[in-house]
Design goal:
Helix content: 40-55%
Number of domains: 2
Oligomer: single chain
Low-confidence stretches: none
CATH topology of the largest domain: Glutathione S-transferase Yfyf (Class Pi), Chain A, domain 2
Number of helices: 8
Strand order of the largest sheet: 2-1-3-4
Radius of gyration: 17 Å
Mean pLDDT: 96
Distance between the termini: 36 Å
Largest sheet: 4 strands, mixed
Amino acid sequence: MRTLYHLPLCPFSRKVRVVLKEKNLDFDLKQERVWERRPEYLQMNPAAEVPVLVEPDGRVIADSGVICEYLEEAYRDRLLLGIDLTTRTEVRRLVAWFDLKMNREVTQNLVGEKMLKRMMGYGNPNSSAIRAGHANIHYHLDYIAFLVERRRWLAGDHFSLADIAAAAHISALDYIGEVPWRDHEPAKDWFARIKSRPSFRPILADHLPGTPPPEHYVDLDF
């Protein structure tokens, strides 16, 4: 059986989970406490990061970007990067935007400081980082609105890996109640469409012990 090593609130793990579901690939989930640095896990990924995908033939693929590119090449019945060069370029640009820029400016400052730091035992949250995350999230939600007001989906007419990457970060932030939806209706409408996809339902079912999400988290008509 295919296995994905993950952490529930890790947006990069969530991205790969949705891609696997969109491609109708069965897989088992194994939560990996990367901060414990298990020797067996370090053999698979010396970077001690999630996600890591282990294929049924034993092949090990690490890093969410590499995993998604691998899945796109290996399982081509459902393409998520696009069928032409222009679309693939735009999808990759937006994936980098959310996985690099938004992650650095928002996700790490909010999910990282408020949840992951505590889980890993790395001390108290940095209040300056949290303030920066609160300020920066508006910019990224406005950018999502800018895109979807001009296109059906973020990268064009079709749902793509760009939407998945963005939704992975947004969903992790939404789990901890840090998305100011009231001020960003176009982004909210886009995310509602994402939440209605069958591939995204397992993400909405995630519940961390002792830290439930807000009531609207699972609501498709929030």
